[in-house]
Structure formats: C-alpha cells, structure tokens
Design a protein that fits this description.
two-stranded antiparallel ribbon, single chain, 2 domains, 141 residues
C-alpha cells in the first residue's frame, strides 16, 4: 500500500485523495486505531484563512477581522494573524472556556494550518496533548 513507500506525514496529507476503503487500509496499515482515524478525519477540515492584519490588535481591529482568521470561528476566540498569535493560541488552548470538543477539533486544525503558514512548529498531533508540556525549548523543563 502507499504507506510502505511514503513516510506517514505524506500519507496523511494524501488522506483525502483516496477512496474510503483505501484510506482505511492506509491508516490501519500504519498503526492507526479507530480513534486516531477519527482524529485524522477531523484534522482535514479547517476554516482558517490568512489575513493581512498582523501584530498587536486593538479591540476595533479584532472586531473587524473575518471569522476565518480565528482558531474558534463561531466564538471568535484566538485570532491567528501571525506567528506570535499562533504560539499564543497553542499555549492558551486548554484555557478556552465555553467550547465543545468539536469546536476544539476545528480550532486545532485551524491552528495547525496557520502554524504551517507562518512557519511555527507544532509537535502535538491532536489537541488532547496541548497543555501537558511547555511549548518553549527550555532545557530546564
């Protein structure tokens, strides 16, 4: 199968291009459980789109941003307008209140997409891993 020839991240990137049965075989052959397969399916959907607004945002600037710039678009929480805001969203992800697990799935997918766009490394593979370790490369942690 395809996973024998490509490393896992490439396989996940190509996830949507295969039919359901091929996707199931691809993921199960690489050691994914049903829970992990659900996470990969969730990771594929995002609403985030880059915006030209960067830096510190005033309340007016934040209110003027489109919903597609936020990690949590329905609640308009955690704007992802630059690398600094992406790092902040990762660090504070577990502090966001009043959101469902589905909202968190979408927000994590949006953060990963924004992180890729701005060149921010995200080592976590799902939002359940956030908040467990520091996000800074500090040898004292």
């Amino acid at each position: 199968m395809y996973s024998l020839f490509y490393p896992l991240p490439y396989s996940i990137q190509c996830f949507k291009s295969f039919c359901f049965y091929e996707r199931f075989l691809l993921l199960t052959s690489t050691g994914f459980t049903r829970t992990k397969i659900k996470e990969v399916k969730t990771m594929a959907k995002t609403t985030w789109k880059a915006d030209t607004t960067h830096g510190d945002l005033s309340t007016k600037e934040k209110n003027d941003l489109p919903d597609s710039v936020f990690a949590f678009p329905k609640q308009r929480k955690e704007p992802l307008t630059d690398a600094s805001h992406v790092k902040n969203a990762l660090a504070r992800f577990d502090q966001v209140k009043g959101v469902t697990d589905e909202d968190r799935d979408l927000a994590f997918a949006n953060i990963r997409k924004a992180a890729e766009h701005y060149g921010v490394e995200v080592s976590e593979t799902n939002w359940h891993e956030l908040g467990k370790t520091p996000h800074t490369k500090n040898p004292s942690h």
